[in-house]
Amino acid sequence: MKLLLSSFCLAVSLNAAAEAPAPKAKKPAELPGTDMELKTQDGWTLKAKFKSAQPGQKTFVLLHGKGQRKEFMLRLANRLSMAGYGYLGVDLRGHGQSNIGPDGEPITYKKFKTTKAQNDFANMAMDVQAAVSALVAQYVPEESIGIIGTDVGGSVGLKYAAVHPQAPLLVMLSPGMEYQEVTTVNAMRAYKDRPILMIYGELDKKSSRETPILYEFAKRSVGERKATMIAVPHKQGVRLLNGQVIQLVLNWIINPVKTDTVGPSSSTVLAPGVPDAQSADSSSELILDP
């Protein structure tokens, strides 16, 4: 009798488990804002999200890194918006929703060429141009449009800004002298008389080796007061952007030119273990599709 009762209870338990609804999957994070489509000179259609700035504040083009998408800039975008700044987060060509090439065929960054004759990553500078043009069409003054990019996004942001002196300032996360054959030294030489901020992770072997060299070129190009370099422990790319580092970026945007009493030093290292008052926001547990 006990055996029959146990078998019955087991069957009921299994049936209940089978009938129980599956837990809902968490919705992937989305960048807040208005959907936009951008057209590049060479025929790409790019997907983007736009959020306008408060009157008199800057708007930033947000450029993710290789293998990422615009939502990887979500935490930074939220904090920019809270501070009154606008942003245009872009899925660069071959990334995220920007995956249909000029010929109408699907293509991702994994198929990109990086030869001297054709470098699809270097052509992302046209994506930056398309983003700025779209903002100008929204009546955003070009001289108020800054650029923030990570790894190759920072590289193409620099290449764009080097030949567009209207760009007022630039932030590069995990900079390098070369990403995907997109070189930056000559662009840094051409980037004149405007503030630039470079942030790298100490455990990022490539960026920690190359950023100080690039910083020397930056000082020669823009002057020591307009060049700032910050080293942080452990992180790389957008993963540098905890609340503490984002606050440093926001402070720098307010005072990008160093004086004797204002602004971070030319080379700042953040010690590990410093309390992060801003890290407990809702974006700290993002669900991001690869």
3D structure, described in words:
This protein has 290 residues and is α/β, with parallel strands linked by helices. It has one domain (34-284): 3-Layer(aba) Sandwich (Rossmann fold), CATH 3.40.50. The chain has 7 helices and 11 strands. The strands form 2 sheets. A 9-stranded mixed beta sheet has the order 1-2-4-3-5-6-9-10-11, sandwiched between helices. Helix 2 crosses helix 7 (243-254). The longest helix is centred in the N-terminal third of the chain and has 18 residues, at 2-19. The protein is globular and about 50 Å long. The chain starts with a helix and ends in a 21-residue tail after the last strand.
List strands and helices in order, with pairings.
Layout: H1 2-19, E1 34-39, E2 45-51, E3 59-63, H2 74-82, E4 86-90, H3 125-137, E5 145-150, H4 152-162, E6 170-173, E7 178-179, E8 182-183, H5 185-190, E9 196-201, H6 205-222, E10 227-232, H7 243-254, E11 267-269
Q: What Rg is obtained from the alpha carbons, in whole angstroms?
A: 22 Å
Output the strand order for the largest sheet: 1-2-4-3-5-6-9-10-11
Order of helical and strand elements: HEEEHEHEHEEEHEHEHE
- In total, the number of strands is 11
Structural class by SSE content: alpha/beta
CATH topology: Rossmann fold
Are there runs of 5+ residues with pLDDT below 50, and where?
Answer: 1-14, 261-265, 271-290
Shape: globular
Q: Count of helices?
A: 7
Helix content: 25-40%
Can you tell me the CATH class?
Answer: Alpha Beta
CATH architecture: 3-Layer(aba) Sandwich
Distance between the termini: 54 Å
- Describe the biggest sheet? 9 strands, mixed
According to CATH, the homologous superfamily is Alpha/Beta hydrolase fold, catalytic domain
Q: What number of domains?
A: 1
